[in-house]
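Researcher: Next entry in the queue.
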Amino acid sequence: MSIPGRRGDNPTAMAATLPFPERAARRRSQLEDFLVLRRNLLELWGEPAYTETFLPGRFLGRTQVLLNDPAGIRHVLIENADNYDRNASTMRILRPLLGGGLFLATGEAWRHRRRTIAPAMSPRMMPMLARHVATIAEETVAELGACFGLVNLLGHLQRLALRIAAHSMFSLEATGFSREMREKLMDYGLHHTRPDMFDLMLPAAIPSPGDRARARFRTEWTAMMDRVIDMRSALGPPPEEARDLFDMLAAARDPETGRGFDRAELRDEVSTMIIAGHETTSTALFWACYIAAKLPALQAEIAEEVRGVDLSPGVAAEALKRLVYTRAFVDEVLRLYPPAFLMVRVAREADSILGHSIAPGTVVSIAPWVIHRHHAYWTDPETFNPGRFLPGAKPPARFSYLPFGAGPRICVGAQFALTEAVLVLARLMQTFEFQLAGGGGMRPVGRVTTQPDRPTPFILTRRRVPAAPRP
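Model: Structure for this entry, 471 residues:
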């Protein structure tokens, strides 16, 4: 299958070019699975996961199911969503960062938060948010233009995404707190996100040894977020209309109850948006740049599309309509390298999925990493092909493409994330040519998001503007 707009592309070569984790050729023991889980979650799934639709198993004494069937996924995430809770280890790892925010809230608390937040992320807010994105993208392009030699692009993209989050949330430069925030997040990612045996086996109500260290982090994190909110509150109320997401969240009211967020709820929602937004988007942008460097013919397609497009803050939202191929490229990045690679749910009560009995306590896993490569739903699933998402292409089967989840708990910031990724990628490709400096042997790893397992240096050179034709 060739990519629309290109000739002579070799799908097999393109698939072999991109890095993937190892896949087990045999069924592993539970000890081996535990070691893999600690090392790289993306290696958990062997070849059958990419061809079968319902894979039962057991791990640490619990029944496990990997669910790859769209109808089954719809059942778990939509039709009977109230029967499936997040698992204890996910709550342990994410609660110190996100508190009781929308991502982890349940029941009526979740419904209240969702109803209150939804207007702040509606399509009418995208022009304002696009201005924030374009402003920081322009500044980052200038900073990258001053770099010489090898560039740690992931670090630059993480800072960019954090600055965009701060600017769009607070109308503040992140210079006053970005270093502290990044250091805390990196420390947490290195030391507190890999579950040990106690994290996996103990009920959520019983603290594990690792929870003590996470509780200390939570105290430091909330103190820092309170300082940032105080800094933003000092700007006072908006003169006329909302300047940023903080104005929207502070003024938001639940349309059913009329209740807004108290200080603790506001802090948790701000934390959730900053962490979930910047961590996932920076990762997606890294993979987009990495793939563009590995597949220079496709990089040239983006460069051609964005050449001459005005991506300045005042018109960035309008420019999105012209970035058709760039958007398709991002969609395909999110297929092969979804930042949120795994969703885990635990059945509260007995259920039936695809005719299979589900006992209470069964752990049901839905892995975008797997289903996005499943042979039943994708042609040449390992091949990077933006043509899958171009206008006129057959859309993927429902619930076979889940970069932002699905159902009532679909990511509320999905449209903002796509706006940010497309605009930033377009601006970068408009200015630079991307090449990899080595990078041999790099593999993706599943930790909190899908990340490279080692630093990957890039070489950036100014893109040459074609000379104007002679009269």
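Model: Confidence is low (pLDDT under 50) at residues 1-8, 467-471.
Researcher: Noted, moving on.
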